[in-house]
Structures are given as structure tokens and as C-alpha cells.
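Explain this record to help learners:
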Amino acid sequence: MRALNYGLTLSLALPGCFDPATTVAEDGLGSTTGDTGTTSKDDATSGTFGDTSTSSSTMSTSTSMSTTVSNTSTTEAGEATTSMAEEGESTGLPPATSSTSAVDAGEDPSGEADSSPTSDATEDASSTGDPMTDPAWRPLLRIGHDDLTNEVGNYNPKVAVAPNGDAFVAFYDNGVWVRRYDAGADAWDDLVEVSESDSQGVNPLMVADAEGNAAVAWYSALSNGGLALRRYVVDQGWGVVETVAEPAGTGTTTYLTGLAMSPAGHIVVGYYARNWGESPEINTAWLRVWQRGEGWHEAERLGDSTAADSVAVGIGEVGPAIRVVTAWVESNTALDVLGAVYTIDAESGMSILSAPVPLEQTDEFRSLRPMIGVDAEGTALVAFEQSDRYGQQASVVVNRYDGAWSGATAVNTNAGATSADLAVSRTGEAMLVWRQCSPCGIWGRRFESGAWQPAAMVAPQEDSVSSPRIALDDEGNAFALWIQNYAAVGSVYTSRYVAGSGWDPVPTPLEDEIEEYHGATLDIAVSPSGHVAVAAWVRETGDIENLRRKIVGSIYR
């Protein structure tokens, strides 16, 4: 499962921030050719790509299950992110190796960047190493483009890792781009622009299933933009762009806030539509399911509120049924988190959406940023943040669904908990991390055997720590990732949790004290076996007059 990119410093994706003239054009009309990102529109409804009709019929069941996690965090532009962690087995502690600067594949060490958008392919990522040695974090590599101008690009990376170790990193840079890591070849594919060049796609979310298929979704920064998705199928490559929500008309924008994929390959998208032209403005919450072998179901509106947003989603299989668990924020009188369950029955072909249920402890506090993880049995864990109007009585609250809601429980140890992230394994274990002050630090707490274990400090007591992320494998081992920025000096750290042993006594620096700033957009994911993990983040150089961004990352294997 995965959570948003919440640090809570999020980019405001508004119209006017992107120049379509600078977008690298995508053909999108040729035949499918592996990872080239081009495919015939005639393939949209054939073979594994599935039927794009909106009719709902019998579900093709699968006994293969994996965890999906959806986390949402929204700004005024509705930016959100999702993360997903999967299988795992203990592989021991990584040695404290680090790189203080990226060895950018395709980039001249002198600082003169290669202008080719796909030339930064595999220098670091392709170094195989000895497969018999202990796994470790490899030297850094540039995953995205190298911006040479002051543009709002190379931002908001999202990571998904499949059970076979294949990984996908999505981000936006005048369009939505994806780069795939082929674990078998131990190499990175070229960058692929998955969005249509004139759509101004932003803020993608990335997920993968148990077979290595994947999906990336995004929304348009245009004032009346819609929401789109594109699927990657093993041995076939990228399919066509599929419309999830049509542009809603002048003055209305659709914001993607949740994306999840079940082990069997079913997909659910969570989003909300904002009508800026109304006074007061109208926000409505929605979800839509793509059923493997059947295609898209009709979109379902969540509740009847006109002040709803931040839709989080999770999906799994329970016997012959697809179960979607969702949570969202409503702000009619106060900021409340509500939850519901959407079930598609394979035998009858019918679907049903339950009535909304309040998930918080009390209406006296504001509830924000719901995130969801679902295990192999279809059990869901919802986490969200709750605080008073001043943000002083802040806490992280969870509510579990296993046929019924368990009730809200706060998991933090002191007041002032923010920037939470959640991961749930296919085996039903979970890990939460958050930033908590007095003193400030990154804390983590594990859920196993039906109970929350004592909280433990993950990162040192430093005011500068922020934006924690978490990934969890099926053996209960985890990776935490966070940022430490001291004025103009920035670092990215990770720490590994080994089941039965605890957190690394000393965090590992992936990028240590370089004279560049790290934004709050970073992500990490691990394969269910725990053998491959991928971390990615944004590195910023220069000042506001000459800003330069890169997507930087590292592989653990």
C-alpha cells in the first residue's frame, strides 16, 4: 500500500503552469511495440487490455492476492499521491553505503546535460553486482529529465514494484512520464510519455499487480480537464489512453486522489470534481472500477455532499467478489472522514455501494488526508490525520474494516503528529510512520497479529526531518524514507525495519548534505518478497529565477 506524497508541501498544479509547446509529442497511433508507449487505438478493447465498455458483468476471479494502498493528500489544486507495497522476505540489514551526489546516466559530469529526453538510461541502474552478496542501496541515478530552464517539471514521483522486482516510476514534466525497471535484465527502459501531449497531465499515481502489469493515472491541469489512465501489460507494453472521467465543462476540474490495483489486476480510481463557477463551489466525490476481462463500470458517487474531496481507495478480492474500500473528506459543517464499501458480485453481476459511515472519533476536530491499504483477505485499514483548528492537538487515527468497522483509534504517542504514511502487506500486517515533535522526529508503529505494537523512533530528534514514506513486504520487513533539509543543505535518509529485530540503529544516507534542496515529493516501494526496493525523490538546484529539478533515485537489491 502506499500513501501520498505527503510532506505537506505539495505543488499547486494550476492552469498556466505548463507550456504545451514544450511537451515532447507522442504519436499514440502506431502499433504496440513493447515499451515505446505507442499502440493502436484498435487494441483498446481487445486481448488483455480488456473491454472499455461501461457495462458490469461477471468477474473473472483469481486466488492471487496482494496488498494495495491508496493515500491522498490534497492542495487547492487537489494534488494527491498513492503508494503500494507488496511481497516480502527478510534479507538482512543493508550496509551503510551511500552516495553524496547522483551519477546521472546520460549526464556529463561537468554539468552539461544531455538534451535527449531518453538518453539518461541505465548507467547506474544497469550495474548488476554479485547476486550472492548482501543486498544494498546502489549509487544514485537520474530517473527523469534534466531541466535546464525554470519550469514546473520533474515533479511528484510515484513508485510501484511488482512481485518479480519490475518497478515503475511515474512523474510529470510538461506531461506524465513513466520509466520502467526490468529486474530480469537489471536495466531501466527509456522514458515513455504516457499522457497525450496536449492534455497537460499532472500529479500521476502508479500501481502494479501480482503479474507485473501496471497502471498510471493522472488528471489534466486544464480548467475543464478530465481524468485519464493508461495500462501496461506484460509482454505487450503500454495500451492507449483511457478516459476515466470526462471533462466536466467550463469552470469544473476533476482531481485524481486515489488509485489502487488488486493482485488479480482489477483497478479502482478515486477522484473528486470541483465546480469553481458555483458560489459556494461544489465538490463531489467519486470512484470508478475497471474489472479485468470486463472493462469499466459506471462511476459511483460517494455520498450526497457537495463539499467532498480527498478520495482514497483500496481494492481486493473476497471469494468471488471484488471489494473496494473507500474513504473521503466532507466539509459540510466540519472536516469529517467518511468510509464506504463498494462490492461487485461475480455470480449475480450486481454491485452495491454501502451507506457512508463516519470514521473519526469526534466531530470536534478536523479530519484530513485519508489513506487505505487492503490485504489478501480483503481486510482494509484506513488511516487519517486529525487536529484542532490550530493544528496543535494533531494525531494519526486508524479504523479497520473486516466486514464491519472496528472504530477509530489514535496510534501516535504524543500530540503534534502529522505527515503520516501507511503501508499494508498482503499478509495483513501494517506499518505507519509519521512526523511528531516535542522533540521532532520520525516515528513508526507496526500492526501485527491483530494489534498495534509499541511505537518506535525511526529518525533522530531533528526539527529538519520531514515527509516520511513507508514500504512493507510480506515478511513484515519495511523501509522508511524521509528528507532532512538544513537551510541550503539537503539529505535523503532511509532506515530498514527487520521483523524480530527492529529499525536500523543508524539510518542510511542515500544523498547526504549536498548543496541542493529536496522537495516534499518522494516515494518508496518494495516487492512483496523484499528483494527489490526503489526510492525516488525530487532534487532542486538554483534559485527562483533559475530553478532546475531532477528526479533522482536508487535501487535496493
